[in-house]
Amino acid sequence: MAKEKPHINIVFVGHVDAGKSTSVGRLMYDSGNVDENQMRKLKEKAQELGKGGFEFAFVMDNLKEEQERGVTIDLSHKKFMSDKFEYTIIDAPGHADFIKNMITGASQADVGALVVSAPEGIMPQTKEHLFLCRTLGVSQMSIMINKMDAANWSEETYNKVKSDIEGLLKQVGYNPADVPVIPVSAFEGDNIVKKSENMAWYTGPTLREQLDLFKEPEKPTKLPLRLPIQDVYSIAGIGVVPVGRIETGIMKIGDKVIVVPARDGKGVTGEVKTIEMHHEQVTEAIPGDNVGFSVRGIGKKDIARGDVLGKTDSPPTLVKEFTAQIVVLNHPSVLTVGYTPVFHIHTAQVACRVTELVKKINPATGETLEENPDMLKNGEVAIVKIMPTKPLVLEKNSEIPQMSRFAIRDAGQTVAAGMCMDLIKKD
User: Fold this and answer.
1) Of 8, 117, 177, 385, which has the fewest CB atoms closer than 10 Å, so is most exposed?
2) What is the mean pLDDT of residues 188-211?
3) Does 7-210 carry CATH code 3.90.1150.10?
4) Which fold has domain 318-425?
5) Is 366's pLDDT higher than 60?
6) Comparing C-alpha atoms, which of 164, 172, 77 is closest to residue 118?
7) What integer is the mean pLDDT of 307-336?
């Protein structure tokens, strides 16, 4: 059987109406991933709803409400095969109200495509989306300057927007030399899959070509083993079978492992007997693999969802308190010391108390805006100290970034997102 292509998650982000959904729809259609018949139906649907021209967007925007409002509310996932990779395309909302979904999208992505409108240039959300992609670990970016048809295919407009974007990329910490800036018209189909005849002055890749130019995300196999537990089953004849996805490191049969905090808060140890993936026995598993495994010496009542498995020689870190960089997204009022929302960290959900607001920082430059502020408002970025209300595994972003990120949720919505910069270990 043919070797599977490496898998990459790509998130499309950008200001509302910049044309993200249309870009994705055009990419799917022009590359033959959506057929004529489907497209014709979507076109009729668009005209019926008085949204002529939105048919490409409808490829991704499947929800009825989205089709009527003409905005992307929810995340949608679509498979796309390039020559080198199997992509999952995540189309994320640009609308400010929908930023929490965008965060979920960005936190799952390896690479990002930011769509900017040529006539409008950089909008407030353009900056926010770039910063969030950076904070949430999207390591490779590409930029599409869309609606070039509305800018009369002008190279001068392209150069101006491109230079603004390069300034922004530098500010948030991307190297502009590594970020392609592609002039496109998603509506007309220029430089999405087909090379544009209207912009002969542009000699770089189309979006479709760029999808083969990204680097395959490196699997963090050299880092210590970390496997957050999603569920624990008891299976007759096998015993206790925990399941989860390996974030970092390599798991092998015979490994001496420890699961923390476990029920006693100190961790339980055992030895890996079998590893199963896609209903087949394997001898080892690597980051990104979803596995079920059996462990000698660990009982069903010892461990639960939210615990993390590592090797006994480099156990997962239990934190007493930690310092984090957070971005406040959607708090109903203001965030102050004493606030105790639920933190979603890998598979754990633990209430944590904000014990100190250390400083507010400028998301674009990283410089300090205010020491020890009284409160934080939506859109602000800060360094804060946090105390979990029960034992929790977390790692520093500088050591194991895959285990450092979290979302803060309260009353059914994502209030903030961030990453652990420093920590004090629990004894």
Assistant:
1) 177
2) 95
3) no
4) Elongation Factor Tu (Ef-tu); domain 3 (2.40.30)
5) yes
6) 164
7) 92
